[in-house]
C-alpha cells in the first residue's frame, strides 16, 4: 500500500534536501507540504517550498501555516532567506487556499487512519490541528519528527531548535497519544556528509542531484564560518528513518518537554530509569547505520 504523508517543514537548507529526496522515494505519496516559520520567516519558508517544488517539477499543494508559536514570542531574525546563496526558479503557482488545520484534518479523514506526518519544523501547525480537531488523533497513523536531543542542544545548551521555538506545541503533540518517532541531534549529527559527497551529486546531470549539491555546499559554507567541517542534513535523516525504519536502532521512552523554566525551555525530559508511572510515549532513534543512509540518499538521485 502506498503511504500517504504530509511533510510539515520550514525550508531551510536541510528541509530542501529532504523534500528533493522525498520526491524520489518509492511507495509513498506526499499529499501536501505545510509550512511554518522556523529557519526563516513564514513568507520565506513558504516561498522556498513553492519554488523548490517548481524547480524539480513536483506538482504538489503547498499550504501556508503558522507564523507565530502558540504562546511565546518568536525572537529570531526574519531577514534571512533560509536557503543561503541557493537560487531557485520562481514559481507562478499559487499557494493552496485552505487553512492549514483544515488541510491536515481533511487529509487525515480522507485516508482513514493511514496518514503519516513527517515534521521537520516547529510543531505549531500540528498542535493547532489537535486543538481544533481533537478527533483527529486516531486518524493519524504516526508522526516522525526531526527534533530534540538527549545531549547538548544547538540553539541553547539544552534545547534543539525545533523544540525550543514552540515548546508548548511540542507538549501538546507529545501528550496526544499519536505514535511518535523522534530523530534527534544524537543521530542526525552522526549521518553527516563531506565535500567528496558534494562531488558525487555534482557528477549527475539531473536537477535533483544538482540541487542537492548546491544545498550541501551552502551548508558547508555556513558551517565553515562556525569552524565545522561536517555537512549535517538533519531533516533528510529523519525522512530516511521514516521510510526505512530499519536504518535506525530505536528505544521507547517516556518523554516530556520543559515549558516553564526559561533557562531550560525546550529541553526534553527523558525517563531513562523508568521511575515515572507515565506511559512511554516516544520511540527515539538512538543509533543509525550511516553507510546505509548515505547509500540510500545517493541511490535516490543518480
From TrEMBL:
This protein's name = Nucleoside hydrolase
Identify the Pfam families for this entry.
IU_nuc_hydro
Instruction: Work out whether the entry's keyword set contains rRNA processing.
Output: no
Domain Inosine/uridine-preferring nucleoside hydrolase, residue spans: 5-294
Name one molecular function that GO assigns to this entry.
hydrolase activity
Keyword line: Hydrolase
Family annotation (InterPro entries): Inosine/uridine_hydrolase_dom, IUNH
PANTHER family per the UniProt record, alphabetical: INOSINE-URIDINE PREFERRING NUCLEOSIDE HYDROLASE (PTHR12304), URIDINE NUCLEOSIDASE (PTHR12304:SF4)
